[in-house]
Amino acid sequence: MNASNPRPSPSPTGPDDAIVAEVLAAAGGDARRAILGLVLGQRQLEAEAVRSVSAGYVRRGLRR
Fold first, then answer.
1. CA 32 to CA 11: how far, in whole Å?
2. What are φ and ψ of residue 42, in 5° steps?
3. Would you say 12 and 21 are in contact if contact means Cβ atoms under 8 Å apart?
4. How far is CA 1 from the centre of its chain?
5. Which of 21, 57, 59, 63 is the most buried (most CB within 10 A)?
6. Residue 21 CB partners (closer than 8 Å, separation 6+)
7. HSE (CB half, 13 Å, CA atoms) of 24?
8. CA 1 to each of CA 8, 27, 28, 31: distance values in angstroms, whole numbers, following the listed order
9. Is residue 19 in some structural domain?
10. What is the total count of domains within the chain?
11. 6 falls within a domain
12. Full-model pTM
């Protein structure tokens, strides 16, 4: 395999492959745009998780 003749992607066969196909389709087939959307979504979920954890819980967890 060389850079000028990449192998075609296999068709979706499992639930994870179907999710990947769905994400790529939502990004108009642009893999970079799909990855960026996933990264930004992950950052948003992490920020929400940080806001939802109480400071008291975090302090108790640090004493262990």
1. 20
2. -65, -40
3. yes
4. 28
5. 21
6. 12
7. 12
8. 11, 27, 26, 20
9. yes
10. 1
11. no
12. 0.59
For residue 46, the enclosing domain spans 15-62
3-state secondary structure 16-41: HHHHHHHHHHHCCCCHHHHHHHHHHH
Distance CA 64, CA 61 (A): 6
**pLDDT per residue of the chain (64 residues) written in tens, 0 to 9:** 455 656 656 565 788 999 999 999 999 999 999 999 999 999 999 999 888 877 666 666 555 5
Letter for the amino acid at 36? Answer: L
Which two tokens mark 56?
Answer: 């008291």
Is 10 a member of any domain?
no
Residue 4 lies in a domain: no
